[in-house]
Amino acid sequence: SSYRSSGINAEYGDLGGSLSRQVEKDLPMTSDNFSHIVNIGGMVEKMENNIRSVLETVYFGRTLDLLNDIRSLVDLESKKAHDELNKGIANAIKDRTSGN
Q1: CA atoms within 13 A on the CB side of 34
Q2: Residues 23-64: pLDDT tens digits?
Q3: Run of H or E including 29
Q4: What's the Cα-to-Cα distance from 18 to each of 77, 88, 97, rounded to whole Å?
Q5: CA angle 44-55-4, nearest 5°?
Q6: Angle at alpha carbon of residue 14, lines to 16 and 10, rounded to 5°
Q7: Where are the beta strands (DSSP E) in 1-100?
């Protein structure tokens, strides 16, 4: 898969990828050719469910991680200020509990 955006402050980007699977299975056939269609249909449904599951768990999760890494909803200065505040509160709590 790949990701492409148009510049640093891009509002839109392109995300693409490909996935292919192949399966081979020996199944019984009856004298009419209808069982062949039923067998193929079952294999297609099983593979479709497998691919959907993989896409939901792996690919969408990776995409979310990638997008969260390349964009930030908060500017850097605000994040630094927030981190400093958190550190100060943690230190104050630590000092208070160690003093008791």
Answers
A1: 1
A2: 899 988 888 878 888 899 999 999 999 888 887 777 777 777
A3: none
A4: 38, 47, 54
A5: 125
A6: 155
A7: 2-5, 13-16
